[in-house]
Amino acid sequence: MNLSTDCERVRVTLMAVFDGEGGQESAADRQHVLTCAPCRRWLEDLQSMTTQLQGLPYQNARMDLWLSVEGRIHDSEQRLTLTRQLWPVGALLLVWRAAQLFVDLPVPMLHPLVPLAAAVVAVWLVAGDPLAIETSAPELQKRGI
After folding, report:
1. How many Å apart are CA 45 and CA 50, to the nearest integer?
2. How many CA atoms lie within 13 A of 8 on its CB side?
3. What are phi and psi of 79, to 5 degrees?
4. pLDDT tens digits for 20-71?
Protein backbone atom coordinates (compact mmCIF):
# COMPACT_ATOMS: atom_id res chain seq x y z
CA MET A 1 0.00 0.00 0.00
CA ASN A 2 1.62 3.22 -1.16
CA LEU A 3 0.71 6.31 0.77
CA SER A 4 0.76 9.69 -0.82
CA THR A 5 2.90 12.45 0.56
CA ASP A 6 -0.27 14.13 1.88
CA CYS A 7 -1.25 10.96 3.76
CA GLU A 8 2.18 10.70 5.36
CA ARG A 9 2.20 14.38 6.33
CA VAL A 10 -1.30 14.21 7.83
CA ARG A 11 -0.50 11.04 9.79
CA VAL A 12 2.70 12.48 11.22
CA THR A 13 0.84 15.66 12.19
CA LEU A 14 -1.97 13.69 13.84
CA MET A 15 0.46 11.48 15.75
CA ALA A 16 2.18 14.60 17.05
CA VAL A 17 -1.18 16.02 18.15
CA PHE A 18 -2.05 12.75 19.94
CA ASP A 19 1.34 12.72 21.68
CA GLY A 20 0.94 16.33 22.77
CA GLU A 21 3.95 17.37 20.72
CA GLY A 22 2.18 19.45 18.11
CA GLY A 23 -0.39 22.17 18.09
CA GLN A 24 -3.85 21.65 16.66
CA GLU A 25 -4.64 19.82 13.48
CA SER A 26 -5.39 22.13 10.59
CA ALA A 27 -8.59 22.32 8.55
CA ALA A 28 -6.72 20.84 5.59
CA ASP A 29 -5.73 17.84 7.73
CA ARG A 30 -9.33 17.31 8.85
CA GLN A 31 -10.53 17.62 5.25
CA HIS A 32 -7.94 15.07 4.10
CA VAL A 33 -9.05 12.58 6.77
CA LEU A 34 -12.69 13.03 5.75
CA THR A 35 -11.95 12.37 2.06
CA CYS A 36 -9.27 9.65 2.41
CA ALA A 37 -10.63 6.28 3.52
CA PRO A 38 -7.25 4.72 4.48
CA CYS A 39 -6.36 7.75 6.63
CA ARG A 40 -9.80 7.73 8.25
CA ARG A 41 -9.40 4.03 9.08
CA TRP A 42 -5.87 4.72 10.36
CA LEU A 43 -7.15 7.56 12.59
CA GLU A 44 -9.91 5.36 14.01
CA ASP A 45 -7.37 2.63 14.80
CA LEU A 46 -5.04 5.17 16.42
CA GLN A 47 -7.85 6.57 18.58
CA SER A 48 -8.95 3.06 19.56
CA MET A 49 -5.43 1.98 20.45
CA THR A 50 -4.80 5.18 22.43
CA THR A 51 -8.01 4.69 24.39
CA GLN A 52 -7.13 1.07 25.15
CA LEU A 53 -3.57 1.93 26.23
CA GLN A 54 -4.70 4.77 28.46
CA GLY A 55 -7.15 2.42 30.16
CA LEU A 56 -4.46 -0.10 31.12
CA PRO A 57 -3.36 -0.16 34.76
CA TYR A 58 0.40 0.26 35.10
CA GLN A 59 2.39 -0.67 38.15
CA ASN A 60 4.44 2.10 39.62
CA ALA A 61 7.99 1.28 38.68
CA ARG A 62 10.36 2.01 41.50
CA MET A 63 13.78 1.87 40.01
CA ASP A 64 16.69 1.50 42.34
CA LEU A 65 19.79 2.74 40.59
CA TRP A 66 22.06 1.87 43.48
CA LEU A 67 22.66 -1.68 42.23
CA SER A 68 24.19 -0.52 38.96
CA VAL A 69 26.12 2.32 40.62
CA GLU A 70 27.45 0.03 43.31
CA GLY A 71 28.56 -2.45 40.66
CA ARG A 72 30.52 0.23 38.82
CA ILE A 73 32.17 1.42 42.03
CA HIS A 74 33.09 -2.16 42.86
CA ASP A 75 34.51 -2.67 39.35
CA SER A 76 36.84 0.33 39.69
CA GLU A 77 37.99 -0.85 43.13
CA GLN A 78 38.56 -4.30 41.68
CA ARG A 79 40.74 -2.85 38.88
CA LEU A 80 42.97 -1.16 41.48
CA THR A 81 43.22 -4.39 43.42
CA LEU A 82 43.99 -6.26 40.20
CA THR A 83 46.85 -3.91 39.37
CA ARG A 84 48.28 -4.44 42.85
CA GLN A 85 48.00 -8.21 42.39
CA LEU A 86 49.72 -8.18 39.00
CA TRP A 87 52.82 -6.29 40.20
CA PRO A 88 54.25 -9.30 42.08
CA VAL A 89 53.73 -11.51 39.02
CA GLY A 90 55.66 -9.04 36.85
CA ALA A 91 58.40 -8.71 39.47
CA LEU A 92 58.66 -12.50 39.68
CA LEU A 93 59.12 -12.70 35.91
CA LEU A 94 61.85 -10.05 35.97
CA VAL A 95 63.68 -11.79 38.80
CA TRP A 96 63.38 -15.11 36.99
CA ARG A 97 64.77 -13.65 33.77
CA ALA A 98 67.67 -12.06 35.66
CA ALA A 99 68.38 -15.42 37.33
CA GLN A 100 68.38 -17.09 33.90
CA LEU A 101 70.91 -14.58 32.58
CA PHE A 102 73.25 -14.57 35.57
CA VAL A 103 73.06 -18.14 36.81
CA ASP A 104 73.31 -21.29 34.77
CA LEU A 105 70.50 -23.37 36.21
CA PRO A 106 71.03 -27.14 36.11
CA VAL A 107 67.34 -27.91 35.42
CA PRO A 108 66.53 -26.71 31.87
CA MET A 109 62.90 -27.80 32.25
CA LEU A 110 62.24 -24.84 34.59
CA HIS A 111 63.06 -22.28 31.90
CA PRO A 112 59.71 -22.50 30.06
CA LEU A 113 57.60 -23.56 33.07
CA VAL A 114 58.10 -20.51 35.29
CA PRO A 115 56.98 -17.96 32.62
CA LEU A 116 54.07 -20.25 31.73
CA ALA A 117 53.00 -20.46 35.38
CA ALA A 118 53.29 -16.67 35.71
CA ALA A 119 51.14 -16.20 32.59
CA VAL A 120 48.51 -18.59 33.95
CA VAL A 121 48.43 -16.71 37.27
CA ALA A 122 48.14 -13.35 35.44
CA VAL A 123 45.29 -14.61 33.27
CA TRP A 124 43.57 -16.07 36.34
CA LEU A 125 43.83 -12.72 38.14
CA VAL A 126 42.52 -10.76 35.15
CA ALA A 127 39.75 -13.09 34.00
CA GLY A 128 38.78 -14.61 37.31
CA ASP A 129 37.60 -18.16 37.65
CA PRO A 130 36.88 -19.43 34.13
CA LEU A 131 34.46 -22.01 35.50
CA ALA A 132 32.37 -19.54 37.51
CA ILE A 133 28.91 -18.68 36.25
CA GLU A 134 28.43 -14.94 36.41
CA THR A 135 25.11 -13.16 36.02
CA SER A 136 24.11 -9.53 36.18
CA ALA A 137 21.23 -7.91 38.05
CA PRO A 138 19.27 -6.98 34.88
CA GLU A 139 19.54 -10.56 33.64
CA LEU A 140 18.22 -11.89 36.95
CA GLN A 141 15.38 -9.38 36.93
CA LYS A 142 14.45 -10.38 33.38
CA ARG A 143 14.22 -13.98 34.50
CA GLY A 144 12.19 -13.05 37.59
CA ILE A 145 14.78 -14.22 40.08
Report:
1. 8
2. 5
3. -65, -40
4. 887 788 888 889 989 999 999 999 998 898 888 888 887 765 667 777 777 6
Beta-carbon neighbour count of residue 115 at 10 Å?
15
Q: Is the pTM of this model over 0.85?
A: no
Among 94-98, 109-113, 117-121, 129-133, which stretch is predicted with the lowest mean pLDDT? 129-133
Residues 6+ apart with CB under 8 A from 99: 105
**What is the rounded CA–CA span in Å between residue 45 and residue 1?**
17
Listed in sequence order, the residues at least 6 apart from 111 whose beta carbon sits closer than 8 Å to its beta carbon are 100, 105
CA angle, 113 as apex, 111 and 114 as ends, to 5°?
80
